[in-house]
Design a protein that fits this description.
The chain has helices spanning 14-26, 42-51, 70-77, 95-102, 118-129, 134-162; strands at 3-8, 30-35, 59-65, 82-87, 111-112. The chain is α/β, with parallel strands linked by helices. It has a five-stranded parallel sheet with strand order 2-1-3-4-5, sandwiched between helices. Helix 3 (70-77) links the parallel strand 3 and strand 4. Helix 1 runs parallel beside helix 5 (118-129) and helix 2 packs across helix 3 (70-77). The protein is globular and about 60 Å long.
Amino acid sequence: MPKVAVIMGSVSDLDVVKPAIDILKKFDVEVEARVISAHRTPDDAHQFAVNALKNNIEVIICAAGKAAHLGGVIAAYTPLPVIGLPVKSSTMDGLDSLLSMVQMPSGIPVACVAINGSQNAGLLAVQMLSLKYPQLIEKMQDYKRSLAEKIKSDDEKLQKELN
């Protein structure tokens, strides 16, 4: 079974992270959710990252706000793909978090989704996993068809309402 770790820098990030967890479960992906801080529990972050591969984790989503170093710290210690999920903070509305994630030094990539873009972080993890698990491709195609059907239905309702 595919497995994704969802790490948040603080339990206060859970509301932002929840849509990623929900979408991963919808695709039957096992989720390991943790609270680990790059700054307050750096030893835990290090241990988690170096042991992720042997713990059967295949993709790691790191949600953090403000300085948002969690994704970069994890990526420095693991060969696994890391997806950064910038959390909107009170200081700069999440722009600080976003820039911390996308401005990684050469050789330490962290993929990044939109500020509070939790659902897309989960979907991106599913797409990465689909390279190894073909059943996820079929589920992703079904998911995208359902998105298209909803838009078509919304358009039909709008046309009826306006005409």
